Amino acid sequence: MEALSMRKLGARLGAGATSIYWHVSNKDELLELVLDEVYGEVRIPELTEPASWRDAAAVFAYGMRQAMLKHPWMVPLLGVLPSFGPNALAVNNTLMTAFEEAGFTGKTLDYAVGAVVSYTLGATTPEVTWLNMVARSEAGADEWLTNLMRQVEVAAADYPDMLARYSTEDFSDMGVAKSLTFDFGLVAMLDGLEVRLRWHLDESKPPDPSSASPAVDAAVDAAGRG
């Protein structure tokens, strides 16, 4: 993204940089528009029943992950540039509506949708970063991974159990491994949200959305003091 300039873009399009400013005011606005085009690739189908909120969440998660892998340049822009374009808003509205019709309301609705979005972006960003590093290296993916594992063996020498576990892993297809990891995390999150939804709909015992175990509470307090 740093290499992108209005002058270079104008030359690529066979027009001057001044011509581009007739359509956008600056580079950031241009990137916002392009980013919103990517959101347009994430298609969430219309829902037919409240129970399909899980389907909507899964379609969003897999669609967004695919878009990030297809357009790795967008990852550094997420959270930096606002996503208020028509496509981004449409995706968010469809997801919110699916959760709301299922019974999520108030802060629980906000937290639930936010959890799905945060998981999707957070789980995919390291994968995109890894692919970018491999692409920039002179070595192929296999050689790059072999070199990485050598570094792990040195760095984790004091953790034999960890090294033993790594030695049994099959890293021959990192794409499949990353996909399975993403699947596991997404299903686990949706299972947890489904439990939350049942509690939320049972007014006799509504849990505090921010409730956690004493250990988690202590970690949160420590982070706050830091």
UniProtKB/TrEMBL annotation:
Transmembrane segments: none annotated. Residues 210-226 have a biased composition (Low complexity). This is TetR/AcrR family transcriptional regulator. It comes from Sphaerisporangium album. Keywords: DNA-binding, Transcription, Transcription regulation. Signal peptide: none annotated. PROSITE patterns: HTH_TETR_2. GO terms for molecular function: DNA binding. It comes from the Bacteria. Residues 203-226 are annotated as: Disordered.
